[in-house]
Design a protein that fits this description.
120 residues, alpha+beta, 3-stranded antiparallel β-sheet, 3 helices, rod-shaped, binds zinc ion
């Protein structure tokens, strides 16, 4: 449940009420902003514990979502870095070494084409 729970104290406006003498009416309310507007809902008696638990759970879930967002960004960074590293192996020096090695492998396996070319 989105919002925050707090005690709202106010005067009711009735003349001669105890609130005019400083004893304000206290109510537990749920305050939440939606699209720039703040809504205020009085929490019915007996629902305070349930509302507080739901509000706390919502805040936990929001923190989890923020963390997931960070992890997602981190994952993309790692994937990008990995791709960059893969391309980095294609520098000329490395490429020649790899080519020599594969030629060596072919020679060991006895590929006829290579031998034929070498005799010419
Ligand atoms: Zn009053």
């Amino acid at each position: 449940m989105k919002g925050s729970v707090y005690e709202l104290k106010r005067k009711c406006g009735k003349p001669g009420c105890k609130c005019t003498k400083g004893q304000l009416h206290a109510r537990m309310v749920l305050s939440a902003s939606e699209g720039g507007r703040t809504t205020l809902d009085v929490i019915p008696s007996g629902f305070l514990v349930e509302v507080k638990i739901k509000v706390q759970r919502y805040q936990e879930l929001r923190r989890c979502r923020a963390r997931l967002g960070e992890l997602h960004t981190k994952m993309l960074q790692i994937i990008d870095e990995m791709e960059a590293m893969r391309r980095e192996e294609m520098i000329p020096g490395k490429r020649r070494a790899t080519a020599e090695r594969s030629e060596q492998n072919k020679r060991n396996k006895g590929v006829p084409q290579k031998r034929g070319r070498r005799r010419k």
